[in-house]
Amino acid sequence: MSRASPLPRLPWGRPSMKAVVTAGLLVTMLWNLKCFINSSNISGKAPKHTKPLVVLVWEWPSNQVPNISGDICYELYSIEGCWLTMEQQLLHRADVVVFPHTRLQQGRDKLPREKPPGQNWVWVSLESPTNTKALTGWNQTFNWVMTYRRDSDIFIPYGKLVPNRSATMNIPMKTNLVSWVISNYHRTQKRAEVYKNLSRYLHVNIYGKASKNPLCKDCLLPTTSKSKFYLAFENSIHQDYITEKLWRNSLMAGTVPVVLGPARANYEQFIPADSFIHVDDFSSLAELATFLKTMNSSRYQQFFVWQKKYSVKLYADWRERICTICAMYPSLPQGRVYPNLESWFNS
């Protein structure tokens, strides 16, 4: 009777094929598990919320306080998992507390006396540094800033251009050359000086509270749309400080903005280079005036080419701005505090 041949054995220390496959599967499983954990809780970012994010607005930024009870962010903007409230007694349940600077200028007594662990505080301002008072003393207080500046944690511009496939070029009928709507006129402002010198060379139609021609509530756009050009002059000059004077008063109205504000390159980060005229494009205001007065129809229409691709979106509702916090929350940095708010804002 023949004896069965023994199974061949691998040399000592050399794993079998089965062991290699098993080890490979184990490594793959461990790697997938690590990737899942990392994607669920990225270091320095907010973990995914399984319950609604509670955002407490300590005081509403404007005098008109809306009714924000209910899931307003979802109802208006389709942002899920966000709950806005103004009930200050819910402080200890809030994940984020929003503090508009206009309500803080009276002092620190406007803030809660204590800050619950893990809660993030947001400082909000749409004003420029020139027009923002009482900034000193806000050291080690706020985790995030929410302003018109693009380097803010939460960027809230006054407006923007959005793609519009059905957009067409539409230039309203023009009856005058230049207009300007002004509510607060101060002779010390640069815009006051520029207007005074520019008006020596051409006539400017003035409207608004600081003029002899105040406008009714719904008269702004119908009035400015009749002008070929609009003086979109900012009250102070700071990086990214581009307000409704550009977005609403001129672009939305269908007139060409003549801007006075940050550098042209900064404007071009918001709107096409051929959609506006910058005061700094000219060596003198006399040259600017001549350019405006002698422009032919063909050249004028080129300023409106952007209308074929875009439309203007205004950010005028504070509910939409506050709800932006919920949309951005997962990507906001955790554990960071601004050591000196005044230093950051004035930089």
TrEMBL record:
Pathway: Protein modification; protein glycosylation
One Pfam family named in its UniProt record: Glyco_tran_10_N
Gene3D superfamilies: Glycosyl transferase family 10, C-terminal domain
Enzyme kind, highest EC tier: transferase
Subcellular location: Golgi apparatus, Golgi stack membrane; Membrane
Any one Gene Ontology molecular-function term assigned to this protein's record: 4-galactosyl-N-acetylglucosaminide 3-alpha-L-fucosyltransferase activity
Catalytic activity: an N-acetyl-alpha-neuraminyl-(2->3)-beta-D-galactosyl-(1->4)-N-acetyl-beta-D-glucosaminyl derivative + GDP-beta-L-fucose = an alpha-Neu5Ac-(2->3)-beta-D-Gal-(1->4)-[alpha-L-Fuc-(1->3)]-beta-D-GlcNAc derivative + GDP + H(+)
Domain Fucosyltransferase N-terminal: residue ranges: 51-159
Keyword list, A-Z: Glycoprotein, Glycosyltransferase, Golgi apparatus, Membrane, Signal-anchor, Transferase, Transmembrane, Transmembrane helix
Membrane topology: Single-pass type II membrane protein; Single-pass membrane protein
SUPFAM superfamilies cross-referenced by the UniProt entry: UDP-Glycosyltransferase/glycogen phosphorylase
Annotated EC: 2.4.1.-
Domain of life of the organism encoding this protein: Eukaryota
GO CC, any one term: trans-Golgi network
InterPro entries in UniProt: Glyco_tran_10_C (IPR055270), Glyco_tran_10_N (IPR031481), Glyco_trans_10 (IPR001503), GT10-like_C_sf (IPR038577)
BP GO annotations: ceramide metabolic process; positive regulation of leukocyte adhesion to vascular endothelial cell; regulation of cell adhesion molecule production; regulation of insulin receptor signaling pathway; regulation of leukocyte tethering or rolling
Domain annotation Fucosyltransferase C-terminal: ranges: 172-344
Similarity-based family: Belongs to the glycosyltransferase 10 family.
Name this polypeptide is given: Fucosyltransferase
